[in-house]
Write a sequence for this structure.
């Protein structure tokens, strides 16, 4: 499982990168708006924190030609090399842009995915990651986990190199269930990443070990 942080909250990101084995960061226009930063500042600051980690930047153009121009501009402007991923919505112009960009060697993440077919078409268009939105599906009385499971199954059955990047989580249980249903990766808010590793029994056990070990560890280090 590849863990990524779905945020542009710099202090939360710094705290997480200190100990959590994260491999990248995803952003979208809403995340950017919440951060209070413009794109250039946000990406530069995030890059400082994640080092060699992936940075997935969502495009805002609406035609394929503009998307291609936008992605190429960001790639050279931010100078992130292979760590830069152009995040492209799965609309008709987006699929067209994915194919063109893949031919130039650009890394592509297909986003705003709500069906198995959208993911399969994006994979066939060359996307490196496909991002189905779990909570947004659950919230319209659909089944986010089932969509993730079907997409993961397709990627394996058709021997596609595309990875499922499950996204849009509101609970730790959703993350547990995408992990158990074949998702290769997940992008998660800082709050949920912290909750993922919490268990009251861990805290109780550690407290007990510390108490029991008092005065017994006589090898200095
Ligand atoms: C990730 O790529 C998506 O932009 C994000 O996970 C959407 O999450 P939300 O439904 O919580 O906004």
């Amino acid at each position: 499982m590849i863990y990524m942080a779905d945020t542009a909250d710099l202090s939360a990101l710094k705290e997480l990168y200190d100990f959590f084995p994260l491999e990248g960061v995803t952003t979208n226009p809403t995340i950017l708006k919440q951060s209070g930063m413009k794109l250039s500042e946000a990406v530069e600051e995030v890059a400082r924190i994640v080092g060699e980690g992936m940075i997935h930047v969502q495009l805002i153009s609406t035609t394929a030609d503009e998307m291609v121009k936008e992605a190429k501009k960001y790639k050279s402007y931010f100078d992130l090399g292979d760590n830069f991923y152009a995040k492209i919505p799965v609309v008709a112009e987006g699929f067209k842009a994915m194919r063109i960009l893949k031919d130039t060697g650009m890394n592509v993440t297909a986003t705003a995915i709500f069906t198995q077919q959208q993911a399969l078409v994006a994979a066939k268009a060359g996307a490196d990651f496909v991002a189905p939105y779990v909570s947004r599906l659950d919230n319209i009385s659909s089944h986010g986990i089932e969509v993730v499971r079907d997409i993961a199954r397709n990627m394996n059955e058709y021997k596609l190199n595309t990875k499922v990047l499950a996204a849009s989580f509101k609970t730790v249980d959703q993350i547990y269930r995408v992990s158990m249903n074949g998702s290769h990766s997940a992008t998660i808010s800082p709050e949920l990443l912290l909750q993922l590793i919490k268990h009251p029994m861990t805290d109780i056990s550690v407290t007990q070990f510390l108490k029991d070990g008092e005065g017994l560890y006589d090898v200095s280090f």
